[in-house]
Amino acid sequence: MQHGPAVRRRKLGAELRSLRTSAGFTSGEAARLVGWHQSKVSRIETGTSGVKPADVRLLLDAYGLTDVQLRELLLVLAGSDDNGGRHHWWHAYRGVLPPTYRDFISLESQASAMRTLETTVVPGLLQTPEYARAVTEAALEDASEERLDTLVEVRLARQDVLRADPPMELSAVLDEAVLRRQVGGPGVMARQLERLVEAARLPQVRLQVLPFTAGAHIGVTGPFVIFSFSRTSDLDVVVLDHLTSSLYLEWKEDLRAYSEAFNALSIHALSPEDSLDFIAGTAAGV
Fold first, then answer.
1. Which of 25, 52, 68, 170 is at a distance of 20 to 30 A from 205, taking alpha carbons?
2. Considering the entire predicted model, what is its pTM?
3. What interhelical angle do 38-46 and 53-62 show, nearest 10?
4. Between 113 and 214, where is the model more confident?
5. Residue 72, Cβ neighbours under 10 Å: how many?
């Protein structure tokens, strides 16, 4: 398990190596094209050293990569807060958001699909403003009103990925506890459950409820997120959230294990149609 920046460096390096090979260059030839020493290209490709977004642009130009979306994704992996001089929206919150959260948002903003198991709270992409504030207040008891407002604003801005063109595809398995936990009180919870019903009807959203009657399951070890990228599956990553940091799993064995776990959870959960009825019924009883 590695923290975000290390994972991103290795994934970026592997993709740059693949692009160089596809362009028909050796590492030495690539280095000469951009005026570097061959060892610098090697360090970048193995992920042993960081790389500036400007250097990534040089390499991508040298390799003739014109795919705009893939270029932007690789620049995000390089830690770029801008795209051709245009700042990403979260750049305005750099002074408030910790680096691990910015890493998460940057990956989320470029992912084509997200699979998530949630065992305690509603996924951030589906939270109402009132629910998001209640969750944030509980997590940061000493936070000022101003900071709470800003963090809720960020949470809501993240939801734009579901309205993008094309939108991110979100598949979420929710433990029944997510629906039963009274976050923010009955009124806030009622509106949040109504929001889930609305979201479940969106074509890009697949919601399933894992009822208590399912008993013990593979997800009891905790929530997780799997990000997938349409341009290259080699950039897929699993994210595990902890109280003070996030851990990223990148190896194919980890991705396979978590993908199989998510598939198993989907099988044991209620169908999307039955889940919609379950959520609606829970909302009616709040």
1. 68
2. 0.81
3. 110
4. 113
5. 17
